[in-house]
Design goal:
13 helices; Rossmann fold; 2 domains; alpha/beta; GMP Synthetase, Chain A, domain 3; nine-stranded mixed β-sheet; three-stranded mixed β-sheet; 14 strands
């Protein structure tokens, strides 16, 4: 039997995802009423999680487009209402799947999300730019990616993604990460009352902020979670090691000796926290000669720092820590961070973008290992 028009409309609505939660609005209880008159005019009432939902125009547009494509529909009107506190509580419980409120989902033994903490020994090596571009490159490869801007004092990820003035939506005690260019992101900068407000916290407050961004935020089913750590080996590096012992660590350095020496310390700190260092990225490796082209590289900051860090950490840990890539100096890489259009999106054919995309492919080619996972298998009797 062919589906009725009402069934076709509901099927069309099931293709519309909430832009923040990234699940069908029908599954989230957001569709309250669907009315169809004899002339094919359709009225859909959608319940928003909060009255000031920043993406209500997107929801309206997507619902209108989906329903308009159904045969026999002559017009679509979308009415927006707001969930009651009881409905929001039900939604929160549904999203958490019955798990405890303060549980870190990525620390569970059965989590399949690859967690990568991006670290550096010192500031100014381009760690945040690397993090943002890796995330976007992974998303471009079809991965579901989240970013935690764990650099509490120097949070810059939102601005690099063009969402510095965005604020997350809150459903009861649950925070929705801000969607930005295909990835989900949360930063302490998004939780401050004002963008220019200074964060002056010490150890316990830093730890609490990290836990909040991992537990109170609804991340959904991510393939990869990237954490942009503050430089050095301080409180946040220790907290990440304690709360996410399964995280892999990526060390970013530049070629000069001064940077490589402190980068080794960041890698050693990760090992002290029982985390595995998966590789080294040498940023600002060289400048392509503006006259000779790619045949001539100018070593503005010297050479060999990344290889030195990788070799030292390999010898120190007893396992291979490779140089995953060398990212050349490119004005467009810096400009993309300033304008909120990272280079892997704005100039995907640029040498720096190609290097970052290659690194992203290497990191995601191998999923999270099965060590420690509960597979739910029972040995067969003999």
């Amino acid at each position: 039997m062919a589906p009725s028009q009402s069934e076709r409309i509901h099927a069309a609505l099931a293709t519309v995802n909430d832009p923040e939660i990234r699940r069908p609005i029908t599954d989230l209880g957001m569709v309250r009423d669907v009315e169809v008159d004899a002339d094919g005019a359709v009225t859909v009432t959608v319940l928003l999680t909060v009255s000031g939902c920043p993406l209500k125009d997107t929801i309206t547009r997507d619902v209108t487009a989906a329903v308009s494509a159904v045969s026999g529909v002559s017009s679509v009107a979308v009415h927006l209402d707001v969930m009651t506190p009881e409905q929001r509580q039900e939604l929160q419980q549904s999203l958490r799947g019955g798990r405890p409120v303060k549980e870190i989902p990525f620390a569970r033994p059965d989590s399949l999300t690859k967690v990568i903490a991006v670290a550096s020994g010192k500031g100014g090596v381009g760690k945040s730019s690397v993090t943002v571009n890796l995330a976007l490159a992974m998303a471009g490869q079809g991965r579901k990616v989240g970013i935690v801007d764990a650099d509490i004092y120097g949070h810059s990820v939102p601005a690099m993604l063009g969402v510095a003035d965005e604020r997350p939506t809150q459903v009861e005690q649950m925070i929705m990460p801000v969607p930005a260019r295909g990835v989900s992101v949360i930063s302490i900068g998004m939780l401050k009352p004002r963008r220019d407000q200074v964060v002056a916290w010490r150890g316990p407050m830093l730890d609490r902020a990290l836990v909040q961004m991992l537990t109170d935020v609804y991340w959904g089913d991510l393939d990869v979670l990237l954490l942009d750590l503050p430089p050095g080996t301080g409180d946040m590096a220790i907290s990440v090691g304690q709360h996410l012992p399964n995280a892999e660590v990526l060390v970013v350095t530049t070629p000069q000796l001064a940077a490589s020496e402190v980068a080794e310390r960041a890698g050693t700190m990760a090992s002290m926290m029982k985390q595995r260092v998966v590789g080294v990225i040498e940023n600002m490796s060289y400048l392509v000669c503006p006259h000779c082209g790619d045949d001539h590289h100018i070593d503005v900051f010297g050479a060999g720092g990344g290889a030195t860090v990788a070799a030292t950490l390999t010898n120190r840990f007893g396992y291979d820590v490779p140089v995953l890539g060398q990212v050349p100096i490119d004005v467009r890489l810096r400009a993309g961070g300033d304008t909120g259009r990272p280079i892997v999106l704005a100039e995907p054919d640029a040498p720096a973008a190609a290097a970052l995309t290659s690194i992203a492919q290497q990191l995601t080619a191998k999923g999270r290992g099965l060590a420690g996972l509960q597979l739910g298998l029972t040995p067969a009797g003999r």
